[in-house]
Amino acid sequence: MTTAAPVKVRTTSRTGSAPQAEVRLSADEARRLALRAQGLLGAPDRRSGARGVLRRLGAVQLDTISVLARSHELVPYARLGAVPRSAVEEAYWSGDHAFEYWSHAACILPVEEWPHFAFRRRARQARGHRWHVLEDVERSCAAVRDRLRAEGPLTATELGGAKNGGEWYDWSETKIAVEWMLDTGEVVCTRRRGWKRVYDLAERAVPDALFHDDLDDAECIRRLVAQAGAAMGVATRADLADYHRLKGEQVDAALEGTGLVPVEVEGWSKPAWAAPEALAAEPRGRHRTTLLSPFDSLIWDRPRTERIFGFTHRLEAYVPKAKRIHGYFVMPLLSGGRLVGRVDPAREGKTLVARQVSLEGPKAVAPMARALWEAAEWVGCDAVRVERCDDAKLAAALVDALG
Average pLDDT in the 60-84 region? Predict the structure, then answer.
């Protein structure tokens, strides 16, 4: 395991201007700040579990793809180790701890962030529709409202059917209505059942202390920018905007009130900001060795991943098979605080299959073997098989290391 060195704060002045206090970070320091902020450097907070991970990150992305597990399960696994998958689901979908809404994408969010997304709910309301237009908005929404009020939380199927029978986007009027009400905040999804959203009236599901939209747009955005900065440790304007999918000009208007500290990072061509708490203590401790979901917030922003880790990563699940380079659901390998390989995993019965493996040299062999075995045991597999590796010598070494 690697122990980090302290962040060095240096005072400089700009040529031709008055002296100015400025934090300058090396590329290595910025990388370690990002890892610690994301919960991947230092002792994991096992007592707070998956809920603690969610609060720390502020958003955990959802996705329909399930290979080893669904992405929202892989995120706490990467930080906590082999936490039972049932415990992860319980942490997200029980009580009033979290809700689902549009952040970086469709995400699980801590319920404390409900007021912060009022600006987005108002924007959706002002627009009048999202993807579909209802023939009779009032009638369709009233029908959903009455059913939920009378019967409690329901899926779209239970409300009357999600589809009309055509393509996936051929939604029924009921599905359009309930999704519109989700967009605008009248209903909320606080759990899923069989991967189906379970809708409830927001006035019933969101705790009273948080059920309000009285924050104006500027305050909502200020809080989200501050949260994104804390979750990333150090970030550019584009990074801050991407985390909750804000506009660059919204970030510009909010930055001054966030408390984020302007910093200069070696090798970064753009200005950056760091969370004051990230700069207050040395980023030291043990690095996790783990496989990362491609939707993990450490790497979901591809330009940031390249800037921080020098690692090019693309999701190829939606690329035609013949054009894929690394595979369907490529999971980068994090070890020693760096991205040192990748694998496209699959499951065949009780065997974890590494369909395609790429390694950044011999030093990545042992970490990949350890990460594959840990993932295999987590999902109930008792064997690991390597199908392909882009380097024959490293392939042989990996097979030996797997034992």
Answer: 95
